[in-house]
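Researcher: I need the complex structure. Ligand is thymidine-5'-phosphate. Inputs:
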Amino acid sequence: MHPAAQPADSISLISKVSCRICQSELLPILDFGKMPLANAFLDQKDFEQEYFFNLATGFCSRCFMFQLLEQPAPEKMFHQAYPFYTRSSQRMVEHFKQLAETLKKFLYPGAFLVEMGSNDGTLLENFQGTGIECMGIEPSANVAAEALKRGIPTQIDFFGPQVAAQLAKQSDGADVLVAANCLCHIPDLASVFSGLGLLLKKTGVAVFEDPYLGEVLAKTAYDQIYDEHVFLFSVTSMSEMLSSYGFEIFDLEPQWTHGGSMRYFICRKGQREPSASVAAWLAKESEAGFKTLKPYEEFRKRVEISKVQLLECLENFKRQAVPVAGYAATSKSTTVLNYCGIGPELISFISDTTPDKQGKLTPGSHIPVVPPEIFHQANPKAAVLFAWNHAAEILRKEENFKASGGKWIHFVPKVQID
Ligand code: TMP
Ligand code: ZN
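Model: Output:
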């Protein structure tokens, strides 16, 4: 059992955690302290059983992977009540439509496309009626059920060698394997790549899209760090890791999603000519010191300042007796709320469109989650924008909030009231 898969009580006894990729010792970077699971929205009756672990990150000076020191078992996070539906954002639906167009360049009628972490089928539905065979692999039963309802073939499971071997047996192998915002959630990547090795055709392509470490550092977006994001990849660490598993990046493209992501086009080593941008990104990261501790240490200092400033801002509103709301009970907000020690005394409620979250309390911080209608009725004077990665969509949708004198409180890239 990986140390990260042990229960929280025993975790405190572990003094050293090794890199999940190369087993070297990890250098600690940031310690957020006691943290619940980002998506464990709960009722008051469940307070006593609430699960906490220690959220802290480390850096591997050998393979340059930025990762969590400890992580709860995946079964605790991706289960039959996983409350995140890709479809909850219209822009994400459009993003996946465009991703589908990109993938079609590697596909043809009769080709086999596998998606790892297919969620509610938002990407795969774009292939219905194209003659391209699809299979989604999704461990969270409730979101997978949504995909199945739409007629998208979905297997409720974690992707690994067993699933891959079985899919390979039923086909001539996959032409494309895609995983969007999925790889960074998986502690045991050796199992994923062993599966990929079995399933992908010799000339097949894998496309991964994950939050990009460079953007997290540039925006001081420390809220990208939570239990589900076991890794935050840079091009450097992705490239090192792939090499150790017999794959390589042949192209890459930055994406706006999840606050700044990178899309990696991957093949078996030596199968395709890498584009010039691969070397350019590696050089850029090398110049920025991504192989050293420096950028991560500087990031830690900025995170500590951000916490002080956000608390100061909320306490100011409290002193003036101005109630503050939250906008979108995102997974990322769990890190901010618990690390800064923000509870219902500073943020009275958080508006969120996800029915599974409404009526519940936020993990650890116990702030009520309400539907957007309540936010509109209450018309608060100030609101913290937790879904900052959807800012464009939300600011447009909530024009009335600002027009009627409401102030947005932003904390990425820095704390500011607008
Ligand atoms: P994400 O940052 O992980 O994509 O979180 C999305 C959450 O934000 C999800 O619970 C839905 C919520 N949300 C809203 O409440 N209103 C919105 O307008 C958007 C875009 C998301
Ligand atoms: Zn390592």
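Model: Summary of the prediction. Residues 19, 21-22, 24, 60, 62-63, 65 surround zinc ion (ligand 2) (CB under 6 Å).
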